[in-house]
Amino acid sequence: MAVVEVVEAYREYRPRSSVRPTVQQLLDTVPPGRLSALGRVVLTNSVALTGARKRQWSWYRGKKLRHAGGAAGLYHHATRTEPAWIEVFVDQALKGVPGWALRLQLVGSGFLGRVLFHEIGHHIHATQRPEHRDLEDVADEWQKKLMRMHARRRHRIATTLLRPLFWLMRRARKSAPAA
Asked: Which one, out of 33, 38, 126, 150, has a CA that is 20 to 30 A from the CA of 78?
């Protein structure tokens, strides 16, 4: 079983809720084979980026996105000296979420899981299931699969109660006129 280390490295920032246990729960619901060769998940904030890392950017869906202030997470491929790792910018992942909402486990795991599972999707794509499609689309598909797995395992009652609401939302989206 692959054990992924969760490291907190904040600078002038303190998360509004307990992020580390939530991330550990999210990782526990991922099938262990999917996390092989992943060394650690670093929880940080965008202010912690300094020097050259602060000025770096990545392509995201055809646009340049600055790491400091724009990205909610980054996947770092393995090198000769260290395994692959994921960086989650907690301040960006939880941006706009009220503090009271984060007290609800379902909300915190939803917002953090969206970012974490997207980056795990990049890891799965890079190490186990390469596909010849847009990288972000593949990562988004894995994110949805992993979120469903997590919800079924950790939030069974809530997903059962909310299933009719999700069905109505999907139905409304399909019937809405195209703009």
From this structure: 150
Hey, is 104 helix, strand or coil?
coil
Q: Which domains does the chain have, with CATH numbers?
A: 5-175 (3.40.390)
Q: Write out the E strands in the chain.
A: 5-9, 38-44, 57-60, 63-66, 73-76, 84-89
Distance CA 166, CA 140 (A): 18
Single pTM value for the model: 0.80
Asked whether the predicted pLDDT for residue 86 surpasses 70, the reply is yes
Nearest to 108 by CA among 85, 86, 89, 90: 90
Q: So what's the pLDDT on residue 64?
A: 66
Q: CB of 41 within 8 A of CB of 86?
A: yes
User: What is the rounded distance in angstroms from the CA atom of residue 10 to the CA atom of residue 87?
Assistant: 12
